[in-house]
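lol forgot to send this yesterday, sorry. struct tokens for the thing we talked abt
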């Protein structure tokens, strides 16, 4: 079972600055709630303001939720994108796994998965250090890739790591 995020605190901000590995313009929950209710973009940090477990970029007006899981150096080693579907639920459309060179930001490997609700997955495996690229397609069970629209502060479904088919 993956890490439970239900009991972790949630903080809000204008965004997560990936290059500097920090929150941009911390917000109050009230400000985030107003943005959420209007469908405007905001970022939720799960776990901690300065060293979060993950961050969520929420833009409900565009039908988008992006999730970035961070390592001990606040680098995004796992990124996911969810898109709102005609059913009114969000579907995980993309997933990127990154392996870094030690404590640097240099990416050694990147595995990218693009999912379709039909179960089709397109895979791209890039090994930067060996200058190789592998591609493949497969069919998988995507039943666990769906989420209901998030409520303010209720992100544990999106913040689950245990989503592999």
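and heres what i got for the seq, position by position
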């Amino acid at each position: 079972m993956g890490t439970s995020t239900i009991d972790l605190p949630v903080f809000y901000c204008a965004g997560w600055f990936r290059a500097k590995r920090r929150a941009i313009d911390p917000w109050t929950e009230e400000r985030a709630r107003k943005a959420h209710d209007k469908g405007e973009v905001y970022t939720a940090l799960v776990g901690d303001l300065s060293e979060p477990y993950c961050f969520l970029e929420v833009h409900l007006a565009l039908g988008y939720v992006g999730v970035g899981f961070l390592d001990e150096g606040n680098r995004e080693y796992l990124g996911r994108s969810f898109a709102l579907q005609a059913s009114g639920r969000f579907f995980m459309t993309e997933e990127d796994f990154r392996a870094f060179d030690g404590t640097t930001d240099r990416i050694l490997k990147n595995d990218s998965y693009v999912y379709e609700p039909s179960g089709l997955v397109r895979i791209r495996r890039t090994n930067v250090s060996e200058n190789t690229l592998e591609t493949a397609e497969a069919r998988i069970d995507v039943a666990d890739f769906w989420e209901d629209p998030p409520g303010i502060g209720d992100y544990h479904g999106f913040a689950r790591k245990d989503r592999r088919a």
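The two ends are 14 Å apart (CA to CA). anyway ping me if u want another try
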